[in-house]
Amino acid sequence: MRFVQRRNVIMTVSLLVLVCLATTSARAHANRSGHLGSASEIWIGTATTRLTLARIDPEAAAGLLGAPRSITIGEPIGAPVALSWSSERRFARELSERTIPSSVRIVLYDPEGWIATPAAERRSPVPAMLAFGALARANGYLPVITPHPSLMAVHGAACGAIVGESFEAAYLRCGIQAAAARSADIVEVQAQFLETDPDGYERFVTDAAAQAREANPTVQVVSGISTMFTEDPQVLVAAWRSVRGVVDGHYLNVPQGIRPTVAAAFARTILSA
């Protein structure tokens, strides 16, 4: 689970660029026979991560999270282009109350098995994602959805893991990635908890990405990479390499600032690949 608080989001790219990313997905996937380089991928990270990396290695931070397709998540500076919610209900309320800044063009929904997501949405994430996407599109926003497999452990879930079943197997069986893809233009496979097992990471990301694209052929898919689970940057490199040509990019997470030097070394390695 990503250890972040309710997130406000600012993007380093314009809405036009993100719309182009979403609408040209089919063309990108047609070229998957070749390897994708880091510069051609979507890179997502928090403002804290980017600033922390910049202090350690400004060139690596700029090359990864300052690239044209990068997305920086954090407190807004000036008029925000995008904002994030862990609650569809709260998003709907703010829409009705007209409290979302007029500068916002991109909205992100992050349902997880945590208290920030209301209990009803944790138990039934599929209707919540569909409602979020429908509201976002009806109001002219570009939706991004990042569901977490921890939803499969929620007590009383409409669809969850059964005895002996892994979270990732339940996640796929319950169609969580498909629902996210039908509801959004960009989705994340939060597979970072598997990154120390490159084969498991590759299987889950590949299967989830396929499910997403079957539901929405134009969706952009990113996968999670985190410093939470390893002290070895080569573990992150192996996870990244295992899904090159499978996903359109990655969410690089340095939760609570843990092991930023690992992220910096990872960034340097893939930028030189």
What is the topology?
Layout: E1 8-9, H1 15-23, H2 25-30, E2 42-46, H3 47-56, H4 58-65, E3 70-73, E4 82-85, H5 88-97, E5 106-109, H6 119-123, H7 125-138, E6 142-145, H8 167-173, H9 176-183, E7 186-189, H10 198-215, E8 220-226, H11 233-242, E9 249-253, H12 260-271
Parallel strand pairs: 2-3, 2-9, 4-5, 5-6, 6-7, 7-8, 8-9
Antiparallel strand pairs: 1-4
Mean pLDDT: 85
Poorly predicted runs are 3-36
Categorize the overall geometry. Answer: globular
Query: For the report, how would you describe the main beta sheet?
Result: 9 strands, mixed
User: What is the alpha-carbon Rg in Å?
Assistant: 17 Å
Side by side, the strands of the main sheet go 1-4-5-6-7-8-9-2-3
- Our count of helices gives 12
Portion of residues in beta strands equals 5-15%
- What distance lies between the first and last C-alpha atoms, to the nearest angstrom? 29 Å
Compressed to H and E, one letter per element, the order equals EHHEHHEEHEHHEHHEHEHEH
Helix content: 40-55%
- Based on secondary structure, the structural category is alpha/beta
Strand runs, count: 9
Key structural traits:
273 residues; alpha/beta; 9-stranded mixed β-sheet; 14% strand; globular; disordered N terminus
Description:
The structure is a single chain. The model is unreliable at 3-36 (pLDDT under 50). The chain has helices at 15-23, 25-30, 47-56, 58-65, 88-97, 119-123, 125-138, 167-173, 176-183, 198-215, 233-242, 260-271, and strands at 8-9, 42-46, 70-73, 82-85, 106-109, 142-145, 186-189, 220-226, 249-253. The chain has a nine-stranded mixed beta sheet. With 273 residues, it is an alpha/beta fold.
